[in-house]
Design a protein that fits this description.
Ribosomal Protein S5, domain 2, Growth Hormone, Chain: A, 6-stranded mixed sheet, Ribsml_uS5_D2-typ_fold_subgr, ATP-binding, lipid metabolism, diphosphomevalonate decarboxylase
C-alpha cells in the first residue's frame, strides 16, 4: 500500500537588517557575494515569516508554494536550487538508513506567510528563504548546523543565510570558487548585547522599482565607487563593526552603520543608469537622526537603509525616550507604536521642515529589537489532510488584528530563563533562547553547569557581581585550601603539646588551658574591635591581608609550642588564640566591606551565602588533601619546611586576591593617587578604579605626600576642635564646610582637616572628598617647585559627572569614619560663638 501520509514541519524565521551591506555577486549562479556583510537579527514578535513545509506521495500536482494566501511560482531557479540541495541531503540519509521514508522523492507543498510587507525593503526574501530552508531541513530531519544550512539558504537569497542565526551575524564572502566557505557565522548572541533596539519607519509598502538582484548586476557592471567599496571600505567596516559589537560600543556601532549605509547608496547612485532606493522621506529621516544626536550631545541613534526607502533607526533601550520620543509627536497618527511609546518624552524637537516631510511620508512604524533565530513551531499552515489551513488562505493580517508577542521569563538578575511565543491565535509555544541546547549531551552539560553555578555563584553571575569578583574568589579559595592544610599541621602540634598519647598528661590541665585561651580570645576580640573597628572598612584590603598574617602567625606558635617549656607553651598558645581572634575580627569586617562592593543587585546576603558554600567545598578538599599530608609528613624538619612553604603560598594567594579588587569608592590612599595624577596631567586624566588599584600599596601606605622622594607633608583629619586649633596651628584655608590647619612636627608639615556640618546631612561625602582634595592641592602648592596654575579641585567638582564617568561612586566615600564634625560657628543672642 502506498504511503499517503502528509509529513509536516513548521518554522518561524526572522528578518535581519544589515549594518554592513551585501551588494554585488562574484558568481550569480552560486549566489556568491563580492564582499562580506554583517547584520542584526530582529525580534520575531514584530517581524517574522511562518513557513510550513510538507510532503506526501499524495501530492499529485508536484511542488507548490502559497505565499500570504496566494499561489506563487515555485519553478524559479533560486527556489529549485534550495529544493535540490535539501533533497540531496535527505537522500543521503535515506541511503544510509533504508528504513527511513523516502521523503526526498515526494512533492513538496510550502505554505508561508509574513506579518510585514513583501519586497518593500524589509528583508522579506531573507526571512522567507531562511524559513523555507529551516522548515524543509526539519521536515527531512537533517542534522546540519545553521552554518551548514546557510550554504543552502544563500542560494535562495544571499541575506537569508544571516537569518538562520539570532543576534549579530556575519556572512563571510569566502574565497573558494565553489562557494563552500561562503556561509553565515555567529558574531555574538542576542544576549551579548540585548539592549539593541530598532525603530523602522515604513515609508512605502510598495514593491521596489528595481529589484535587489537586478540592481546588483547593474552596480557591479557600471559603478566605479563599487570597486573601492569592495576593496577598501567594507573590509574596514567589518573589522570595526565586529570590534564595536564585542565591546558593546554603540558610538562606534552607529558610526560604522551610518557610514556603510551612505557608502552603499552612493554606489547605487553611481550606477549607470543610477539607482535611487531612497526618497525625500528617507533623507528627512537622516536629518532627524542627526538632529537627535546633536541635541543629545552624543551618538544615541544610527540610521541605515537597505534596498528601499524605509529607515531603520538603531538605538539602545536606555535612550528610548530620547530617540523614540522625538518621533512620536510627529507620527502619533500612524499605527505600529507599542504601549507606552506615546508617553516617552524626548528633549529633542525635530525641525519643522523635517517633521513635516516625515509626517506626510511615513505610513506606519515598527518598534523592535535584536532577537532570536529560527524557531520550530507547532502552528501548521498545512492541515493533516494536505490542504492549506484557513489562516493561510487569507490576506496578510491587518494592523488591528492581535499580534504575536514574545514573553521572556527572567530571573532576579534579568537573565532570560525561558521564552514563550503567544501567537495571534492564542496559542502558546515555548521558544528556544539564544543558549538553548540542541543535543541531549549539551543539555546534560548545561544542566550540570547550571547546578554548579547556582550552588557556588550568585544568581545571574557574572552580571550580578562586579567584574573583579571572580579573580578575588579564585585566589581566596586557593588561600583557604592552603590554610586548611596548614591548620591540620598546627592542630596536630597542639595535640602533641597537650599530651595526646601521653599517659602523664592531665585532662584538667588541658581544660584549664582551654578556658584561659577562650577568655583571652574574647578579650582580644573586644579590644581589637574597639581599637580598629572604624578603620577596617576604609582599609578593607589591608586588613583582609593582615587577617591572614595574624592567622599564620598563630599557626607558627601552635607548631612550635611542643618545643617550649610548660609556661612558655601556655603563653604561646594563648597569644596564638589572641591572634586568631584578631584575625576573626579583621577578616569578618573586611569581608563584609568587600562583599558590599561585589554585590551589584541587592544580593549581598546571597553573595555571602554562596561564599560560605565555596569555602565549605574548598575546605572539604583541603581536609582530604591535608589528611594525606599529615599522615605522610611526620618528621619535625619536614613539617617545619612544609609549613613555611604553605604559609608563604597562602599569603601569596591572599595578596594576589586583594590586589584583584578594584574598589570604586575613595579612601585616603585612592583619593590621593587619583588627585595627584589629576593635577600632574593638568586635569586631563581621571584614573579609573582599575588604574588606581594597580598603584595601591596594600599594607605600608601612610597619608604622607612626598617631594623629590622624601616625606614633605602629612594629611590627617582632626580628631577634635582642640586637636586642630592647638597652640602654633595656622589656618591656611577656611570655608563653610572645612578648615585646613598647619602645624609643623619635626620638620614635617602636618595639615589637619577640621570638618563643619552634621555627619548625617546630605552631601557629606562630597564635602569630605572636597576637603581631602583641597588638602592635597594645598600641600603641592607649598612645594618649592610648585607650578600649579589653577584650582584643580574646583575644575574637578565643576562637573561631578567626571568622577562617575571614570567609575567612582562619589556618594560612598570612606576617607575617615572617626573624623570629628563641628557645627558651623553661629552668633547666639549674647554675641557668643556656639560651636
Amino acid at each position: 500500500m502506498a504511503d499517503t501520509k502528509v509529513y509536516r514541519a513548521s518554522t518561524t524565521a526572522p528578518v535581519n537588517i544589515a549594518v554592513v551591506k551585501y551588494w554585488g555577486k562574484r558568481d550569480a549562479k552560486l549566489n556568491l557575494p563580492t564582499n562580506s556583510s554583517l547584520s542584526v537579527t530582529l525580534s520575531q514578535a514584530d517581524l517574522r515569516t511562518l513557513t510550513t513545509a510538507s510532503c506526501s506521495a499524495s501530492y499529485t500536482d508536484g511542488d507548490s508554494l502559497i505565499l500570504n494566501g496566494e499561489s506563487s511560482d515555485v519553478s524559479g531557479a533560486r527556489t529549485q536550487a534550495c529544493f535540490r540541495e535539501l533533497r540531496a541531503r535527505r537522500a543521503a540519509l535515506e541511503a544510509q538508513n533504508t528504513s527511513l521514508p523516502k521523503l526526498s522523492t515526494y512533492p513538496l507543498k510550502i505554505v508561508t506567510e509574513n506579518n510585514f510587507p513583501t519586497a518593500a525593503g524589509l528583508a522579506s526574501s531573507a526571512a522567507g528563504f531562511a524559513a523555507l530552508v529551516r522548515a524543509i531541513a526539519d521536515l527531512y530531519e537533517l542534522p546540519d548546523s545553521p552554518s551548514e544550512l546557510s550554504l543552502v539558504a544563500r542560494q535562495g537569497s544571499g541575506s537569508a543565510c544571516r537569518s538562520l542565526f539570532g543576534g549579530y551575524v556575519a556572512w563571510r564572502m569566502g574565497e573558494q570558487a565553489d562557494g563552500s566557505d561562503s556561509k553565515a557565522d555567529l558574531v555574538a548572541e542576542a544576549s551579548h548585547w540585548p539592549e539593541m533596539r530598532a525603530l523602522i519607519l515604513v515609508v512605502s509598502a510598495a514593491k521596489k522599482g528595481v529589484s535587489s538582484t537586478s540592481g546588483m548586476q547593474q552596480t557591479v557592471a557600471t559603478s566605479g565607487l563599487f570597486k573601492q567599496r569592495v576593496a577598501e571600505v567594507v573590509p574596514k567596516h567589518m573589522a570595526e563593526m565586529e570590534d564595536a559589537i564585542a565591546r558593546r560600543d554603540f558610538a562606534q556601532f552607529a558610526e560604522v552603520t551610518m557610514k556603510d549605509s551612505n557608502s552603499f547608496h552612493s554606489s547605487c547612485s553611481d550606477t549607470y543608469p543610477p539607482i535611487f532606493y531612497m526618497n525625500d522621506v528617507s533623507r528627512a529621516a537622516i536629518r532627524a537622526v542627526e538632529q537627535i544626536n546633536a541635541a543629545a550631545g552624543k551618538t544615541v541613534a544610527a540610521y541605515t537603509f537597505d534596498a528601499g526607502p524605509n529607515a531603520v533607526i538603531y538605538y539602545l533601550e536606555e535612550n528610548a525616550a530620547t530617540v523614540v520620543g522625538a518621533f512620536t509627536p510627529v507620527l502619533s497618527a500612524v499605527t505600529g507604536w507599542k504601549d507606552g511609546a506615546s508617553s516617552l518624552q524626548s528633549p529633542v524637537t525635530l525641525d519643522e521642515t523635517v517633521a513635516g516631510i516625515i509626517k506626510g511620508g511615513v505610513s506606519r512604524v515598527i518598534q523592535t529589537g535584536v532577537g532570536e533565530g529560527p524557531i520550530k513551531s507547532d502552528i501548521y499552515l498545512v492541515g493533516e489532510d494536505g490542504q492549506p489551513a484557513k489562516r493561510a488562505t487569507r490576506k496578510m493580517a491587518s494592523s488591528k488584528e492581535p499580534k504575536a508577542i514574545v514573553i521572556d521569563e527572567r530571573d532576579s538578575s534579568g537573565l532570560i530563563r525561558r521564552r514563550w511565543l503567544h501567537d495571534s491565535d492564542g496559542r502558546l509555544t515555548e521558544m528556544p533562547t539564544e543558549n538553548s541546547p540542541t543535543t541531549v549531551s549539551r543539555l546534560l552539560t548545561m544542566n550540570i553547569r547550571q547546578v554548579f553555578s547556582d550552588a557556588f555563584f550568585p544568581i545571574g553571575y557574572p552580571d550580578s557581581v562586579s567584574k573583579d569578583y571572580l579573580g578575588y574568589q579564585l585566589y581566596d579559595s586557593l588561600q583557604a585550601f592552603f590554610s586548611t592544610i596548614t591548620s591540620l599541621l598546627a592542630n596536630r602540634a597542639i595535640l602533641q603539646g597537650l599530651g595526646v598519647g601521653d599517659a602523664d598528661s592531665s585532662a584538667t590541665y588541658a581544660l584549664l588551658l582551654t578556658i584561659l585561651k577562650d577568655g583571652i580570645s574574647r578579650l582580644a576580640t573586644i579590644g581589637f574591635a574597639y581599637r580598629f573597628g572604624l578603620v577596617i572598612e576604609p582599609e578593607c584590603k589591608k586588613y583582609r591581608f593582615l587577617a591572614d598574617i595574624f592567622n599564620d602567625s598563630a599557626f607558627f606558635l601552635d607548631l612550635f609550642s611542643p618545643l617550649f617549656g610548660s609556661w612558655t607553651k601556655v603563653a604561646a598558645l594563648v597569644v596564638a588564640e589572641a591572634l586568631r581572634a584578631m584575625c576573626g575580627v579583621a577578616a569578618g569586617a573586611s569581608k563584609a566591606a568587600l562583599s558590599k562592593h561585589f554585590a551589584l543587585r541587592g544580593n549581598l546576603s546571597e553573595l555571602n551565602a554562596k561564599e560560605s558554600s565555596q569555602e565549605t567545598a574548598v575546605g572539604l578538599i583541603g581536609l582530604i588533601v591535608g589528611s594525606f599530608v599529615v599522615r605522610h609528613v611526620e618528621s619535625r624538619e619536614a613539617v617545619f619546611a612544609l609549613m613555611i612553604i604553605l604559609v608563604f603560598v597562602h599569603l601569596g594567594m591572599n595578596y594576589l586576591g586583594v590586589r584583584c579588587v578594584q574598589l570604586n569608592n575613595f579612601n585616603q590612599q585612592r583619593a590621593t593617587i587619583f588627585f595627584e595624577e589629576y593635577m600632574k596631567t593638568m586635569g586631563n586624566v581621571r584614573l579609573t578604579p582599575a588604574e588606581v588599584a594597580k598603584r595601591e600599596n596594600i599594607i605600608f601606605w601612610k597619608p604622607v605626600i612626598y617631594h623629590d622622594g622624601r616625606p614633605f607633608a602629612k594629611i590627617v583629619f582632626a580628631k577634635s576642635y582642640a586637636d586642630a586649633m592647638a597652640s602654633g596651628s595656622v589656618v591656611l584655608k577656611e570655608t563653610k564646610q572645612y578648615k585646613l590647619c598647619q602645624c609643623n612636627t619635626s620638620g614635617l608639615v602636618v595639615i589637619k582637616i577640621l570638618l563643619f556640618g552634621h555627619p548625617l546631612s546630605e552631601g557629606i561625602s562630597t564635602t569630605t572628598l572636597y576637603a581631602w582634595f583641597s588638602a592635597v592641592s594645598l600641600v603641592h602648592s607649598m612645594m618649592p617647585d610648585n607650578d600649579l596654575e589653577r584650582d584643580y579641585v574646583e575644575k574637578l567638582f565643576a562637573n561631578p559627572s567626571h568622577l562617575a564617568r571614570a567609575g567612582w561612586v562619589q556618594g560612598d566615600v570612606s576617607l575617615d569614619t572617626s573624623a570629628a564634625w563641628m557645627l558651623p560657628p553661629n552668633e547666639d543672642v549674647d554675641g557668643k560663638k556656639d560651636l
